[in-house]
Amino acid sequence: MAVENELPDLTAPAPRGEGDPVSPDLLEAELFGLEETLNILRDEFTSVAPGERAHVARHMRDTRVRIAQIRLRLLHGC
Fold it and tell me: Count of CB atoms within 10 A of residue 70's CB?
């Protein structure tokens, strides 16, 4: 016997596209999280083996790029 969804009106939110407007509050929250992530990556960079540093450095660069993108969106009004 198939089980029916008890809450049929609930759907997963669709992923937002690059050009979709986002509230400034959500962008600021994401920015805060990314800055905290960058701080953690900085600490991790100094404690990992030299062979793993390139991997951590790549994540740091990607995080910095995302931070810059969010700051630009906040400056230009999303």
Answer: 20
pTM score over 0.85:
no
Residue 2: burial class (beta carbons within 10 Å; 0-12, 13-18, 19+): exposed
AA identity, residue 3: V
Tokens of 18: 């690059």
Q: What are phi and psi of 50, to 5 degrees?
A: -55, -35
For residue 18, the SS3 value is coil
CB 70 within 8 A of CB 27: yes
CB 69 within 8 A of CB 34: no
Tokens representing residue 72 in the block: 């630009």
- Choose among 4, 17, 55, 59: nearest CA to 34: 59
pLDDT of residue 21: 72
